[in-house]
């Protein structure tokens, strides 16, 4: 049997899809990239971006007709849109067999078996005290040098624009012992770099009585032999503890790169977003981080055109981009998520204005990113090889500790020895729009 998985959105969904592949491998399903030959099609949805339902309905419009030729085909929809719609999605989309929620990952094989037996559609979207599937460990890709490890799920912050707490449930931290065990197994399988994942990793353990803090967890991951690099995402600026900032100074495997979502530069907008910090507090955190890691590479999320955002508010966002100097930003026009507080706010910004602000925001950031990449030329960095470069030409590709992509030719003397997972000292010789070119030094 073959399973085809289509994944939308964030890293958490990518990680969940890896777990689903693993669960079905135990049921003798092989993954396939060809939906037409699949016995099971799973769509793992995301509702963070705009118009998520449209994307899903269009995919179902492609896949449900395949049942005419393959009546045994089972189609399942999971992730945030499935969680939001529940069994109403089955009514809306005849031909869809299964709707499974964000806490029901591990029950999916039973749901599929049940549908095959009964020939009746099924849905399961209840929230559980401990989300199902968190303890499923995806089999690492034998060629991969990095892997994601989910350390917590859900969020209690309820930012006014965000749907996550409603679709991923309340914050839940996995036991640290289970996380360390997973990291050990990944290291044994040859993984060199782990990305610790969660909706708000800095609040890891805070609501789990007796559990260690996030900074302590990083310390334990740091002890795992074979792991060379540690990253994490996503952080909330209001939860950046001094303990966590000091961890960057004391744990050399902790990479000097951090995604710290700003969202907006105006305090008035931040307040309406319910973010729990001001621009000044955010800058203070950046300052503290740069004291312990002067070269830290920062990335962020920006929402432009939030309800009530004036031109002056927007200018504050642009000022923050200049002041912080992000390597990269992920910027979006505000779009209302039904069910969130901000969806009922007044003073919606016209779409044309949002588009204009987004264009100005991205134009400024492109200049900043380019300046920062150009500043790397001449520097020597340790590059963890991830595989052959997409550019071909016999080049290799990897990432610096700051997560910048570097392509470099293998020197003739060691060309047969370069393998993914190796770390090379590489001198940066050229900067492109999104990547760097380097040469291996001694
Ligand atoms: S912190 Fe805010 S934006 Fe992030 S997941 Fe939680 S509610 Fe959403």
Q: Can you characterise this structure?
A:
The protein has 442 residues and is of the alpha/beta class. It has helices spanning 11-25, 52-63, 79-85, 88-92, 108-118, 164-168, 176-188, 214-222, 242-250, 267-273, 279-292, 311-324, 351-374; strands at residues 2-7, 30-31, 40-45, 74-78, 98-100, 122-124, 146-150, 152-153, 172-173, 193-197, 229-233, 257-259, 297-304, 328-333, 380-388, 395-399, 405-409, 423-431, 436-440. It has four domains: 2-124, 3-Layer(aba) Sandwich (Rossmann fold), CATH 3.40.50; 140-255, 2-Layer Sandwich (Transcription Regulator spoIIAA), CATH 3.30.750.210; 263-277 and 284-375, Transcription Regulator spoIIAA (2-Layer Sandwich); 380-440, Nucleic acid-binding proteins (OB fold (Dihydrolipoamide Acetyltransferase, E2P), Beta Barrel). The protein contains 13 helices and 19 strands. It has a six-stranded parallel beta sheet with strand order 2-1-3-4-5-6, with helices on both faces. It has a five-stranded mixed barrel with strand order 15-16-17-19-18. Strands 7-10-11 form a three-stranded parallel beta sheet, with helices on both faces. It is globular, with a radius of gyration of 23 Å. Residues 155, 157-159, 162, 164-165, 199-200, 236 line the site of iron/sulfur cluster. Iron/sulfur cluster binds next to helix 6.
């Amino acid at each position: 049997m073959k399973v085809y998985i289509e994944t939308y959105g964030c890293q958490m969904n990518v990680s969940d899809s890896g777990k689903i592949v693993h669960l079905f491998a135990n049921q003798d399903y092989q993954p396939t990239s060809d939906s037409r030959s699949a016995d099971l099609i799973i769509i793992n949805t995301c509702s963070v971006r705009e118009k998520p339902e449209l994307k899903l309905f269009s995919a179902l419009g492609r896949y449900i007709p395949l049942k005419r030729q393959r009546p045994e085909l089972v189609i399942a929809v999971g992730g945030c849109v499935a969680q939001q719609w529940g069994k109403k999605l089955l009514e809306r989309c005849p031909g869809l067999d299964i709707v499974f929620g964000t806490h029901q990952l591990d029950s999916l094989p039973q749901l599929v078996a049940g549908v095959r037996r009964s020939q009746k559609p099924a849905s399961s979207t209840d929230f559980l005290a401990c989300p199902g599937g968190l303890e499923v460990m995806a089999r690492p890709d034998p060629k991969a040098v990095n892997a994601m490890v989910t350390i917590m799920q859900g969020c209690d912050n309820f930012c006014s624009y965000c749907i996550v707490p409603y679709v991923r449930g309340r914050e839940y931290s996995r036991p640290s012992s289970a996380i360390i065990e997973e990291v050990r197994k990944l290291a044994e399988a040859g993984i060199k770099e782990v990305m610790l994942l969660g909706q708000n990793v800095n609040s890891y353990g805070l609501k789990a009585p007796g559990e260690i803090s996030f900074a302590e967890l990083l310390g334990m991951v740091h002890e795992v032999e074979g792991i060379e690099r540690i990253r994490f995402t996503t952080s909330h600026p209001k939860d950046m503890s001094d303990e966590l900032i000091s961890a960057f100074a004391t744990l050399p495997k902790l990479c000097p790169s951090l995604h710290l979502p700003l969202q907006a530069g105006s305090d008035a907008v931040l307040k309406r977003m319910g973010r729990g910090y001001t621009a000044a507090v955010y800058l203070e955190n950046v300052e503290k981080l740069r004291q312990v890691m002067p070269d830290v590479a920062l990335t962020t999320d920006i929402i432009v055109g939030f309800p009530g955002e004036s031109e002056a508010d927007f200018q504050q966002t642009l000022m923050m981009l200049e002041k912080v100097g992000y390597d990269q930003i992920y910027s979006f026009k505000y779009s209302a998520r039904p069910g969130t507080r901000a969806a009922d706010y007044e003073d919606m910004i016209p779409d044309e204005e949002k588009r204009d602000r987004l264009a100005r925001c991205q134009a400024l950031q492109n200049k900043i990113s380019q300046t920062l990449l150009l500043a790397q030329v001449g520097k020597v960095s340790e590059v963890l090889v991830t595989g052959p470069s997409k550019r071909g030409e016999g080049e290799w590709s990897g990432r610096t500790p700051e997560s910048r992509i570097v392509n470099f030719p293998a020197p003739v003397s060691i060309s047969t020895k370069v393998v993914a997972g190796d770390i090379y000292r590489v001198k940066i010789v050229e900067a492109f729009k999104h990547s760097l070119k380097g040469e291996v030094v001694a």
